[in-house]
Amino acid sequence: MGDILAHESELLGLVREYLDFAEFEDTLKTFSKECKIKGKPLCKTVGGSFRDSKSLTIQKDLVAAFDDGDQKVFFSLWEEHIPSSVRDGDSFAQKLEFYLHIHFAIYLLKHSVGRPDKEELDEKISYFKTYLETKGAALSQTTEFLPFYALPFVPNPMVHPSFKELFQDSWTPELKLKLEKFLALIFKASNTPKLLTIYKENGQSNKEMLQQLHQQLVEAERRSMTYLKRYNKIQADYHNLIGVTAELVDSLEATVSGKMITPEYLQSVCVRLFSNQMRQSLAHSVDFTRPGTVSRKLKDVPLLPSLDYEKLKKDLILGSDRLKAFLLQALRWRLTTSHPGEQRETVLQAYISNDLLDCHSHNQRSVLQLLHSKSDVVRQYMARLINAFASLAEGRLYLAQNTKVLWMLEGRLKEEDKDIITRENVLGALQKFSLRRPLQTAMIQDGLIFWLVDALKDPDCLSDYMLEYSVALLMNLCLRSTGLSPPTLILLQEGEEILTFEPYVNGALYSILSVPSIREEARAMGMEDILRCFIKEGNAEMIRQIEFIIKQLNSEELPDGVLESDDDEDEDDEEDHDIMEADLDKDELIQPQLGELSGEKLLTTEYLGIMTNTGKTRRKGLANVQWSGDEPLQRPVTPGGHRNGYPV
């Protein structure tokens, strides 16, 4: 009872403040009268009158700054005292702020006697222009405000018909009235009674705690399911191990009796022992005539969890766009972050053997169709994954088996105009495709050279990646006799920016100059004089390459081995080297929210399958074919491979 009496005055004051705020006038009179009759002290709420007086002062200062045309003071007070949630989320507040910026921009034009001070006017117009380019840009699609985006660029707005309304006498008072009503409403809402604040804070706190507990429960259930799966796998392995152990004990007893154990028997035991951990081909590869083979094999090959690819592909086709994006990202990371060699080969072989991208599927809905998704993120992440596949020789071979992949990539390259990273990855994949001769032929027949020539005419519109890979792709296609064309010569002659990628440009020039008709045209253009200009500015390596090109330009016969024959489409796989670029994982668009799974954790938690761990033997490429650096490039190459100095 003592505690209640000690705080009674403050509690009654809170009730009185709330009744006053909610405008319960009759109830407030009755309440005050009864408190007086009973002798209950009514404490004035601490800070109530102070808040009221402070609010009035702020309102007066804002209106005064409005009247004086002092935009710096006004917007300093505006941003300090108007909550950001109102400024950014309330449409009326956004529109009012837009008109307030116009008011200050034209203030000198309306209130100056004679010509306004040019420096001060320029400053106000510049302030308005900055607003339009930043926060005000959100209203640029609104018809009501669209004409005002031209205001900073009109020499004399006072006489322009579009801004006639702004210079009428009634415009400023009407705007001021809107401002005063808005401020009165905002500051009344900000003077929330303490009783209501206490209620809201407690309610919000309880809500947040419930959400947090629910999230923890979901996480605990997910972990429980993961651990249960692992337990079941361990239990199965345990029973299998007990059975194998019993057989091996029986075998040891048999050897004591003089019976021999055959390598075939050990082979069958090994297959059973490793059946749940790796492909049976590993067990079959163990040489039982050499002691210790099994242990060495286990140490050499790291174990990688396999995935449930049926479930994966189903979710890639039918899941939400966000889930699709996270899955494509996780599958790409698995490929790009795995260790080169056995581990990466295991990942790639699992993708290929399970036809992850549906390259062999004839269904209307397939994973490949994600390249045409309406979601920008899904399209970009699908292009990144295809580019990662194309970065590996076996991945290129897998993608090349379906000509539909090439057509889809060519179509996406020409149609994609929203996302530059999607376009970069599509182009990167096509450039790597050009290492394979059948795909070179298909790209030439599809007219890709003309598209590249057209795109490279305006290199300022291309990113560094697009520029480099476009030039490299053009060079690879120009190495074929059907890929030579005079427009390519003109482009290489006039495009100063693309000449910064001199290995590819020099290689393309060397190739196309092997055709007598193009050689004659180059001489008529004065190509030798242009090349000699570059000799003066280039380094020693570039100078030697240009000398080879000039020699080719002045020759009269077709040198042997410059062009690749178009008659022989056999694949000699001179593209053996795998180049996984760092750009594949740059500028990720999506980040997981609290409790959301991504990357390897998403794959191993939701899509865990039987563990496998075998890699495929790498095919040997033309390891002895080296580029000297003195001569122009004469074989297909990727920018990544060329930078790393790999054989081409």
UniProtKB/TrEMBL annotation:
Chain segments carrying region Disordered: 623-648
Coiled-coil segments: none
Compartments (UniProt record): Cytoplasm, Cytoskeleton, Cilium basal body; Cytoplasm, Cytoskeleton, Microtubule organizing center, Centrosome, Centriole
Keywords carried by this UniProt record: Cell projection, Cilium biogenesis/degradation, Cytoplasm, Cytoskeleton
InterPro entries: ARM-like (IPR011989), ARM-type_fold (IPR016024), ARMC9 (IPR040369), ARMC9_ARM_dom (IPR048959), ARMC9_CTLH-like_dom (IPR056327), ARMC9_LisH (IPR048957), LisH (IPR006594)
Residues of the ARMC9 CTLH-like domain: 57-188
Pfam families: ARMC9_ARM, ARMC9_LisH, CTLH_Armc9
Domain LisH as annotated: residue spans: 443-554
Gene Ontology terms: cellular component: centriole; ciliary basal body; ciliary tip
Gene Ontology biological-process entries: cilium assembly
Primary location class: cytoplasm
Record's function text: Involved in ciliogenesis. It is required for appropriate acetylation and polyglutamylation of ciliary microtubules, and regulation of cilium length. Acts as a positive regulator of hedgehog (Hh)signaling. May participate in the trafficking and/or retention of GLI2 and GLI3 proteins at the ciliary tip.
Assembly: Interacts with TOGARAM1, CCDC66, CEP104, CSPP1 and CEP290. Interacts with NDUFAF2.
Protein name from the UniProt record: LisH domain-containing protein ARMC9
Taxon lineage: Eukaryota, Metazoa, Chordata, Craniata, Vertebrata
Gene designation: ARMC9
